[in-house]
Amino acid sequence: MITEARSLLILFALLLAGPAPADITALVGATVHPVSAEAIENGVVLIEDERIQAVGADLPIPDDAEVIDLAGLHLYPGFVHPATQLGLTEISSVPGSVDTDEMGSINAALRAEVSVNHDSALLPVAVAGGVLNAHIMPGGGLIRGTSAMLRLDGWSWEEMVLQTPTAMHLAFPSGAAGDEDNEDLALIDETLEKARHWHAAEAAAARGEAPRPARNDQLEALGPLLAGEVPLMIHANGIAVIETALDWAEAQQFKRVILSANADVQYAAERLAADGIPVILRGVYNMPVRRWEAYDMAYVAADRLHQAGVLFAIGDSGGGMDVANARNLPFHAGSAAAHGLPKDAALKSVTLWPAEILGAGDQIGSIEPGKQASLFAATGDPLEPMTKIRRVWIDGAEYDLMRDRHRRLYQRYRQHQQAEAR
Amino acid sequence: MKRLTLALAIAAFVTLPALADWTPDIEAWNSAPPPQPGAVVVRGATVWTATGAGILENVDLLVRDGRIAAIGESLDAPANAVEIDAAGMHVTPGIIDAHSHAAIIGGVNESSRISTADVRIRDVIDAESINIYRQLAGGVTAINLLHGSANAIGGQMAVIKMRWGAPPEELVFDAARPGIKFALGENPKQSNWNNDTPRYPQTRQGVEQIIRELFQQAADYRSAHENHPEGRAGRDQVPPRPDHRLAAVAEVIYGERDVHSHAYRADEMLALMRIAEQFDFTIRTFQHVLEGYKIGPQLAAHGAGASVFIDWWAFKQEAIDAIGYNPALMHQAGVLTGLHSDNPELARRMNLEAAKAVRYGDLDEHTALQLITAFPADQLGVGARTGRLAPELDADFVLWNGHPLSVYSRVEQTWVDGRRYFDRAADERMRESLAAEHAELIALAQASEDESSDDEQGNAESETDSDADPGKRRRTMSFASHLTGYRASELDHDEYCILHDH
Amino acid sequence: MRIALFLFALLAALNLPAAELRQPTPDVHALVGVRIVTAPGQVIESGSVIVRDGIIEAVGADASVPPDARVHEFPREDGQDPMVVYPGLIEPYLPIEFPEPEDDAVPPGRHALVQPDRRITASDWPEERIGELRQAGFTTALMAGDIGLLRGHGVITNTGDAGLGVNRLSSQFGQFVSFADRAEGRSFPNSLMGAVALVRQTMDDARWQAQARAAMQRNPAQSRPEWLEGLDDLRPALAGETPMVFESQDLLDTLRILEFIPPGDIDLAIVGHGAEYQRLDALAERPVRHILPLNFPEAPDIEQGQERDVSLEALRHWHQAPENPARILEAGIPMMVTSHGLSAPGQVYARLAVAIERGLDPDAALAAVTTEPARWLGLEDRAGRIRPGMMANLIVVEGDLLTENPAITEVWVDGQRHVLASLEPPAVDPAGTWDLVLGLGGMGDVEATLALEGAPTSMTGTLSVMGNDSPLNEVRVSGERVIATIDGGRFGGSGTISIRLDIDGERARGSGSGPFGEFSVRGQRSARPDDEEAI
């Protein structure tokens, strides 16, 4: 039995990794929380190269596997941040270190990932907090360009890219709510119309029926969106704006729409569920949108979406202070659970669901065979701020948590303080 | 133009309602204070005392006339005591936020001068700030309203209790020590200002120098006043001119007014402590103290406390070395350490900030809770009144539906002075009545609109008076433009301290 | 005689001061056959008011008409109630825009926002606003500057049309204070708490200055103290010899002011904000005189489906604000009413009518604009009532005054009659060019051209007389009547010239009046706007 399993394993590994000897790691002793399935006490996770090969309670462990004993710890898939600008900003008050917001209204051809600083000091801090993948978005303007799903480790931004383009981003003009003549929306409409025309002309040219249209980087970049190959992520805050945006998107007949919105999105929950539009809820730690609303209005938004049957992920504001503290993403989800959201849904809202919504559901978001081995071992429930994260693996490789500047400074000054005390 | 008369459910508290019926309101002026029962007994709770007694399981907490009377097993309570079955619940002291701008009207900063020691937060307490109610819902019972950090010597602070509904003067926590805000580093040297007219200083050494200079002036000022003779001789001699700015600084160097100084970097904190030592007084606390862990022993030796963001970092150059382990390291070095919010939204979940002190640096859970209760109370000089659960102290406490540091827990009740200012059940009642009132008023307003559009004469008369608003309000700052209905002061913050997205 | 003067004025080129040509005329009037509300709650159902040289000589059912009086009758049709005469209203708070003090105009050591020594002078006379007030029936007003923290002295004036010199009753009433103003940019103070600190420091400086001066007098053999210009002007208010009038921005500001000025020497009055009802208990503990605006908000805009975005707080205030005056009085807080904060002073009637509907006693409402401010201003013996010996400041109105849209026909200030016409919706479109003849009695006729442009609800126009084109200050169309006013300064005089024209198709007939006298007008339309376009 064992031999047979092993030979199968080796065969599988050879198929995957070519002739090089398989690099197998066995994580044992921990309670495994696959997210996609029930927790497994004293479970085993086998990692081969960068992928999870098997997950179970009594898995056979290959002889040549590196066995890592995680007794007393809990294994979770890395958190997937659904909306952030990690890597695009370092110190928000130092303009030279900030690449979050481009000028101009129409920036369809921008690609967020190309200016991700893979050595940003912010990345190891996020990783040490269990955020191992993040959806990095462009900012500024109306049509903002495309985003990418990244692993938060790599020797260049190219190595970090897990999936791109993940979405085309549109900041829906808030002035368009209640104003049919909104200039910003008119500009968006016109741009989309021009893009449709340009691509039709391009297609005709390809068929030899017409001359090629003049090159246009912006219009060309909208092609995948118009063809339905890339979803449109609409950013809208406030129920009036959200509803206007949804009406507009319906009229435009986009095939795939993702809505990124504040807590007011709860008031559109029924419609979103009916239309099958997934939602990125931009944070739980927010003031109620209106002064006269209940104090927990923003806290209960996630549960309202869940109850209505909306597929959603929990994010944060994604900018400013929240970039440096992307590590606090799980606590947003935990607090939503304090206010009604079932705990398992809270966990999914920062792991599996963002992966699925953002087209990476087959790669990340749960501990399942075939997925990237991006997971961490923690002392307990990772939605609890008291919990400590002990070890991290990204794509099968253990991450050196001492790359986290905070841990380094802690170690250095703790030693200094202890020496002083002596 | 005929207007219907709505039977007003609001503003109709002729007699105080019984505790069970008491319902708050979203407007302080319309929120009657909750009754103060002669006695309250909370039964069978897990009580986090924030004292040497630690965490007591399955005990009772007895309150009499607004003060804690006893904590222990199976306490006898008067027959008329309000009984609260708290089995499975946790009780902690009310949270004390030692750094807040959540209820300041008309600007958090008087940013004009290098010293604005004459301005007083006491003059501008926003008793109507919805933050007071919202933070009660997060278990906060007292906050320190601080001037912003635009100037080396800022304004005088005001500590308030969260007595939602009371006018400003009744919010003031009279037991608190007088204090004043100082600021060091990037803000007073104006690093991040869009500044056409830079003022002195532009360097950290300039900040240090100007403070020293102002201390000297204040000392001279005090001497001049003290040397002015009493009685007849005094009347015949021209008295020194009063100067509220120097007078407040003189109180500082005479130890009558505590310094709570915004500071990030180790060097600037050391520099201020050394000046204070020259003038023979102690810096009461540093605020934010991001690099405090680098000089824990020096802070402890001076006697300075530390009031800290636990995990804010990287938002400014001087915040690049901020680490979550800071409070734990300083606490271990013997520094009186607490956590603060500096943000009206964060203030609603300070328990989770405390939980992070367990995550970063391994403080035990009870000590972590003390970071938001007992220790900040001590920093503000109110430790003998609040911040702990012990007999004789004010009955400022919180009932949680679970472990108070757990992300899954929620505040059920918050008591201040033995009055239940927040109660989930009362809040639910309020939601229902507000929804009904809103619907009723909307209907009235719609009826009135229809009426006036039928009546052109009335319409012509009714030019908007809002344009003729007599006030000349200037800045309205909001860090979240999509929020609606808020008064500017409720979203105000120290614009020199935190750079927001918007 | 006056008509001659008017002609003279029309010959603008001469431009001589009118006063030099003024001749004494008997200034005695009898308003007969009117209902007289002599004071709140006191009515003479039918009687006369006799005015001599600007002063009320007699009032009563049986007051006899002096032989030298010009008799003003108010003929009424059968079944109509007689016209009603009320005392002129008193505006207790008329903030006047001062030019901002220039930086270099501020003496060293003094803050630009601290101007306790400022007072309104003849050159600050707000002609237009005074005219508006008068038209609305206000015959006396307390004016003060509206910028700065310490804003200076108030000036009590009547609202006649001849400038401050003629109208002034007192040039030093009250010291006006507010915490509302800020310095520009990064100058002190740029926050509310800074403004409070500056006012506090200034008041203590003023007290110190008095002490220092006294010490210096007793003992001159010492270093002279610095002298802070203007602060001596604070002394009367600090000593309670004149009120300190604080303009409050909102409820919290009122509480702040009450704490800032504790009970003691200072005679505090507060210009309110309209939401006093929100904390009446706190205000009733120390009933400080309030000058109350009637700035009731409009009903909020409600978009279908967006009700959530209409704030409950705003709805509540909209609903409750009209009760504010009644509830303040119920709480025992002395109250006056100001038209400040309304888009036009005449709105005060509609607002008072609403307040009355919402519980304000009508007599108290009238008192709040007559006897109460009179008492506060020390004018009990001179204004606020119709009583012999008082200034002849009167309103003549058809029916009750405190109604939504009272038909005021005349306002008398210091015995000078100002004829108004109540406005009705336009019933004609007088746009075009009118060739008019101004009939100046014995002086003959003068030709004039009146050009009117725009819609009847928003017209502009020009009057040309003998080659002199004068833009109209204001043109209003009421029913079939056009009412236009022209700045008298255009014709070398002072005050306002008004013209009333009744339009009948292409013909017009009417009258005019000015500070110089009355005249007739007649003429016809020579061109309509379309015609002009065709040309």
TrEMBL record, chain A:
It comes from the Bacteria. GO terms for molecular function: hydrolase activity, acting on carbon-nitrogen (but not peptide) bonds. Residues 1-22 form the signal peptide. InterPro entries: Amidohydro-rel, Metal-dep_hydrolase_composite, Metal_Hydrolase, Metallo-dep_Hydrolase. Keywords: Hydrolase, Signal. Residues 301-389 form the Amidohydrolase-related domain. This is Amidohydrolase family protein. It comes from Wenzhouxiangella limi.
TrEMBL record, chain B:
Residues 448-468 have a biased composition (Acidic residues). InterPro entries: Amidohydro_3, Metal-dep_hydrolase_composite, Metal_Hydrolase, Metallo-dep_Hydrolase. Residues 1-20 form the signal peptide. Keywords: Hydrolase, Signal. Residues 446-476 are annotated as: Disordered. Residues 328-420 form the Amidohydrolase domain. GO terms for molecular function: hydrolase activity, acting on carbon-nitrogen (but not peptide) bonds. PANTHER family: ALPHA-D-RIBOSE 1-METHYLPHOSPHONATE 5-TRIPHOSPHATE DIPHOSPHATASE. This is Amidohydrolase family protein.
From TrEMBL, chain C:
One of its GO terms (molecular function) is hydrolase activity, acting on carbon-nitrogen (but not peptide) bonds. Keywords: Hydrolase, Signal. Residues 355-417 form the Amidohydrolase domain. InterPro entries: Amidohydro_3, Metal-dep_hydrolase_composite, Metal_Hydrolase, Metallo-dep_Hydrolase. It holds the Pfam family Amidohydro_3. Residues 506-535 are annotated as: Disordered. Residues 1-18 form the signal peptide. SUPFAM superfamilies: Composite domain of metallo-dependent hydrolases, Metallo-dependent hydrolases. The keyword Iron does not apply. It comes from the Bacteria. This is Amidohydrolase family protein. The lineage of its organism: Bacteria, Pseudomonadati, Pseudomonadota, Gammaproteobacteria, Chromatiales.
